[in-house]
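Quick question, first post here. What does this chain look like in 3D?
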Amino acid sequence: MGKSSLLSKMAYDVRKGNPENIVISITGSDLLSYGEFDSTDHLVLQNEWKKALSARINFELGNRIGFAWTDDQMALVEASEISGYRGKNFVGSLIARIRSKHFPIEVTSGAEKDAGALLSRYLSTHEDMKIWLFVDDIDSTFSADEVQKARVSSFFSACRSLTRDVDGLFVRASVRTDVWTTVRYNEDLDKCEQYTIDISWTRTDLEKIISKKILSYIERNHGGSSFKSCSVDNSRDRELLLSLVFMDRLRWANSRVPPFTPIRILGAKRPRWMSQLCRLSAEAAADREYKRVGIQEINNVLSDFGRLRVNDIYKEHSHQFSHLQKLVETFTRGKKRYRTGELLEKIEKGFVARIGEESVGHIDGEIYVRPLQIAHLLYRVGFILLREIPNPGSPPRFIDYDERPELLTDPSLDYAGYIWEVHPSYRGILSIR
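> Answer (accepted):
Ran it through. Tokens below.
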């Protein structure tokens, strides 16, 4: 969905806006090395995260000022000391702590030999320095067991607590929608809801992204071109830029539509997926010496595109279910559309019976009991979508997990009237009709 890109872009903007700011870009796994996170006690984990965040910032301060710890344990900040930072500048508090503790540090830059003097001089000229911490993939390898849920939810609680209590610290972190939906019911996270922003790309947003990629290519390779004045904020200019690569109309679902329609649908409204589809289809058109991409070129690359998509699923979600690849392959050469009963039968006969019920194991931290659990997993990872027809004669509407995460979670409810479709981006690689 572009989480990493947005964090990288903001980190770049913050550095550019004020080079004096300390900007730290890390992943969740980087922070795990600074503490013990196997508990399910929320308060214990929250303090571990505070210590890990403070230790990582200490390390960055050392790089900035020019000193290195000679004792790794000295980099850790006790929870009791963190609580004493309330209302103070974070950089100043950490430097003052280092000086008062007389930690064994080694000066690594300049002629300054006295560590205390070095820290004093630095603090006197950087009292108002701000720290920006960008944390990506805090939910990598997430499965919905109690340890993982406590670990992720306590991270956000720790961030909120630290940024509330101290001045000069700003944190931006990303988390997948399905993970947030799982952990947000923790009592403490209701206070974090006010700080969250859902990444939701409108059709216009996505059109701008693709148009900007085309315009950037033109600017890099044809700097003096007449397209230099084009603006992706102008709908006519976006249409013009797309027409340089794609035919004006493509045959799609028994009608002729603008080229952006199939790109957006097949790309699941994700910028990276859409970009990959555009590149693959453009290469296919170039191989055939065509000047523009048509629907035939898009169709011809759907197997390669689908391979990228299933690999994405395996990389992102296999830790939630160890047999995910076998499950997806169950749908090879099958139908694209299933009623709920047909879907559950397909799962039970085509997958569960094939590997043995006792071998299914855990699904997102829960032991397998019924096919509905597996159907919900397929829905959650985006492999299937709910198909709805709002009114007779109107085009179908497709609903994904982000819109209705509660679907297929309650075995007492009747889902018989629901219709599910395998997402179009997976059909080519799986030879689905």
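The CA atoms of residues 142 and 253 lie 38 Å apart.
The first strand starts at residue 22 and ends at 27.
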